[in-house]
Amino acid sequence: MSFQIPGSPLSRVLRSGLVRQRFAATGAQAGQLRSRLSAQRSYSNANGASEETPTDNDPEPSGEVSERPARFTRDGVNRGRKQRGDKPVVDTEKRKEEERALMAIAAGSNAADGEINDEIRGASFNRRTINMELKWLEDPRDLADRVARILRSGDPAMAAALVRQAQKEGRRCDVAWNHLLSYCMQRGFPQVAFKFYNDMKKRGRMPTSVTYTLMLKGLADAPKSTANVKMAESIYKSIKNSEVEPSIIHTNAMLAVCDRHNDMESLWRIAGDLPEEGPQAPDMRTYTIILGALQYASRHDIEKLSPHETDKIVERKDQMVMEGKRIWADVLYRWTKDQLQIDNHVVNAMASLLLEGARERDYYDVLALYHQTMGIPIFAKQPAETSKCSRFTMFRLAFLRRSQELVSQPAEDVPFVDENNQPLREEPELEEDMEVEGEEEVENFDMIFDSVVPKTEGLSYLQPGSKELTFIEDVCHRLPQGFAAGYSYWDHLTIESENRFEPDAIAYAQYLRLLRGGRASKRAVQVLQNQALPSGNANEKLFHLAMACCRRDRNNASVLLHANELLDIMHKALVLPDPRVLESYLELVQALSQAPHILLNLRGLPKEERSKINDLKVLGKRLQADLHLAAITALRLQVLQLHEALQSGKPGRSSRWGALKNGSGNISGSLAVKVMARFRTVIDETLKAEYTPFVPQDEHKRLQSDSKLLRTYSDKETVKKFGTLSVHPTIEQKNAFRERQLDIVDEPSERKGRKADKADEPQEPTSSDNVKQEPET
Question: Ranges of Basic and acidic residues compositional bias (predicted)?
Fold first, then answer.
């Protein structure tokens, strides 16, 4: 190990100067409603499985924190932190009435005999009904299952009466109470759940370990409110005074509440009280939550800054990265001392935090992190040390500044000017920085991500997967000259390595974004043909990204051939062609037709009669006509499929039932009509007199027939008809698609056989095999 850290428990980390400063800053904001963070986690914060496995009689928690939705995206679009507790409210009055009714049920009666309150007495049950039910529910498991079924049927009053009567008779009904609490949390009423929780304790039933965990996890998913944090903290503190032994599971659930509600003050206070050893010592889930909280607290602070305040934004990001490295030092120390077993979730949480950094070195550290924990080689060059922020950060801030200027344009600004005709502006008063007591300790984390596994006995590498590959490709997309490294990482992890794996659709999409940036249309075709198609991951989004690679690579002489190959692959992979891909193909053709210097060397066009043409203008018309004919030929099959679906596929409005009834392959009717009309425009352009000498007579007649067939899609009534409809494939098209899928299944075995026959033959290297070459041109 390259660095020495004396005992570095989590409490030592929290005592550092930067964290104390952060604690003071967050403490001033306590008690205020904090806005939900700006970006959702997309494929970044990997959360572990549930740490506490209930018994057979225990209810499933209302929402597992470990399975919460991803919070940010890789496209840089702010979409807000999403939480399952914040469900869209359709009818506010109805929700209030439901909450009032549940609160009345939870209030019950204060009478010693447990008499049912008049407000909750309903026609669905009475005292005799409850007694008859309990007569057949001697087993606690049967009682819990019956309560769960009643709650699913929408009768919480009967369920509450049943549980209370069982409690009155002295039966074991812990799990039944948990079902009742879980139901209230699922409905989004934590106050009602807390009311039932207190009622349960008043009736003599003390909470179990699962009850505490269920309440805390439910409050983590509850709508954002400082009251919910206080409620969770009171429940968490009550564990120490109960018969339940506190564990790190309860602490993690409490930290998740603070994280979800952006209460950093409470998070640091609770994490700082954790012991170094014992059942309450920090585990991997603890570190994962803290790393995620650091990241989202930074985003929350940056939201308050203007995009023009670049220095402050970069400073806040640097502080976040430093705090994250301090946490990682503790993780690394405990891992090397065999006090803790790391997992992919905490590694991905650290990688996600580094990706939020402002410097290229932070991005490179992601690659070093995966090399340290998973043994993945580093193919990228280490960026030079610089005080400037990365180009990616500058582009992001510039985009935000432009967006802000477009949204808030001043009506009129006539400034005063000085003698040099310079505007006079009143300089804003800068607030004096708060002085931090004591000198801040200087820490050096330059070697924090050095390799430790070969030097330490008993340690082994983690196994990478699609999530890690997605992070790596994102890093290579951000690094300067990182395209070749991204190609090498993809080939190593999916083809060459002994521990290679099959990427998922998200990893394919991220790799295609990298290829789009590198203008590598040939590689885009190869990855779809050789990997995505046989694995069944080829979907509409991947073809859309691959065609975008071709559009950016339009200076490549083979780009038309690559685009045509994509259309052929899409025909095999999809029931109906994606109209967006066809429209993107037509845009590529339009861009090529306006670039004569590209048409002269474009492969895929006939070249036999070009040498006989001496007039450049005539040659240009000939090249454009050949391009149009080649595009029409490539698109004709796809367009006929759309035409058949539009005319015979029984279009209908988009709905979940329609998707289930008609299966996959549905496309937007408006997009389909749009691309049909645009395809007809290309045909009509080719039928003009200036191109007639270059179009064969039989092809000319066929084009006229095609134009007549597609004329209906230029009609206003047709456009209006399909404007809000979804187009479904016909039964014949579905059957034909199944046959194409069977052919795809047979292709890999034939390909393997051909490779085995040629294994001993010498292979000449091709340009596509050299993954470290410059982007294709």
Answer: 65-97, 738-761
